[in-house]
Specification:
single chain, about 375 residues, alpha+beta, five-stranded antiparallel sheet, about 10% strand
């Protein structure tokens, strides 16, 4: 197991004074009050971007390691991987702080504790719909240029920004360095042995994102000690993690920079590029193709809950499981099955390739549906009740 929060804070203080030397005596931890207050409420904080740390079958070493050893290995490996001087990494890490608030929020994301009927109203409101329409009107030309070039609808790009940051109004107040440092070296543990490997993978994911942050700062000439974002380290209007910023960000206005904080042209182009490329070999957004279709489960059949959101099932496959679409669907379509706890009972949906593409932004069925339905409402199309 990794050290407790108190042990981590003590180690941080000692390392600040002694580099990589082990702590011999306890040192009073620094105050974190300024870092742990002012958090957004669950209904307004940005939804987190997809955090797929490692392949599900990856072998994970669960051997306990001390914080000092893990930190020293990080400095060594990051320096070699990105050709950054170890002293530069050390000097930056010396400024990082452990955040109790980040651990608390990561332990209870909204997607895991709320049914769809409670989750959706956080993101689909009259004010957010109207805000999206105004945002689209303000940036219509830039959004249309991106849609024409990529095939990703302007309302989908707008809905992503609306769900993530209320159209740029709240991009997060947590220092990215602190968030990634906290989760990279002390990801919350449930104590459940069955979740130990998963939690370790998540910790390694955030540790890698911390390393990616150093590379991003050098490449984009950013002072990473001043960047702020969500409690999990996502940044800018579209809430990109450092690795996604490096891989998918696009210079949309041709000024030679990829600015996801203030340049709308860069933000729109980068979100569309993410949709097109994040799916990897599976593929991303398909221009002009559907996202979802309502379905029903016929009586006498057990509910089907796929383990992934890949659209791998033919209509015949789903029919054998008791599902049939309630609206016209191309006969050769493939889909996944999405079930949601609605206000009047279960809702069933067929999720196509473009639904899968939205889940690459955040690996949550409710997030993907919220983005899609918000986009439809912004575009003036009817959406079903929660």
């Amino acid at each position: 197991m990794l050290p407790s929060a108190a042990m981590t804070r003590r180690a941080l203080s000692c390392i600040f004074l002694l580099g990589l030397a082990a702590c011999a005596t306890p040192v009073k931890p620094p105050s974190h009050d300024a870092k742990t207050t002012g958090q957004a409420t669950p209904s307004t904080r940005p939804a987190e971007t997809s955090t797929e740390a490692l392949p599900a079958n990856a072998v994970v070493d669960l051997t306990p390691e001390s914080f000092a050893v893990a930190r020293a290995n990080f400095v060594r490996d990051t320096a070699a991987r990105f050709n950054i001087a170890p002293a530069t990494i050390e000097a930056t890490l010396a400024q990082a702080e452990y955040l109790d608030s980040t651990v608390s929020l990561m332990s209870r994301p909204a997607e895991r504790v709320k049914p769809w009927s409670d989750y959706r109203p956080n993101f689909i409101t009259a004010s957010r719909i109207e805000g999206g329409r105004k945002f689209m009107a303000t940036h219509r030309e830039a959004l249309q240029r991106v849609e024409s070039r990529t095939g990703v609808p302007a309302e989908i790009i707008t809905a992503i920004i609306g769900v993530e940051t209320s159209y740029g109004g709240f991009t997060g107040k947590t220092r990215v360095l602190d968030a990634l440092y906290t989760l990279g070296f002390n990801y919350p543990r449930s104590g459940n042995p069955e979740r130990a490997a998963y939690e370790r993978k998540r910790e390694l994911f955030f540790r890698d994102e911390l390393a990616q942050l150093f590379a991003l700062g050098r490449e984009e000439k950013l002072d990473i000690t001043n960047l702020t974002g969500s409690y999990a380290g996502a940044m800018g209007m579209g809430q990109f993690m450092p690795s996604s910023y490096r891989e998918f960000a696009v210079d949309g206005n041709g000024d030679g920079r990829r600015d996801l904080f203030y340049s709308h042209d860069d933000v729109f182009a980068s979100i569309a590029n993410y949709f097109l490329k994040k799916g990897g070999a599976r593929g991303g957004w398909v221009p002009g193709a559907p996202v979802v279709a309502r379905a029903e489960l016929q009586s006498g059949f057990a509910e089907f809950n796929p383990e992934t959101w890949t659209a791998d099932y033919t209509l015949a496959d789903l029919a054998k499981r008791g599902y049939r679409p309630l609206e016209p669907v191309a006969p050769d379509a493939t889909a996944t099955l999405v079930s949601l706890e609605g206000s009047t009972g279960k809702q069933y949906w067929l999720g196509f390739q473009n639904y899968y593409a939205i889940t690459r932004y955040n690996n949550s069925k409710m997030y993907a549906m919220a983005v899609y339905q918000l986009s439809q409402a912004i575009a003036g199309r009817e959406i079903p009740p929660a």
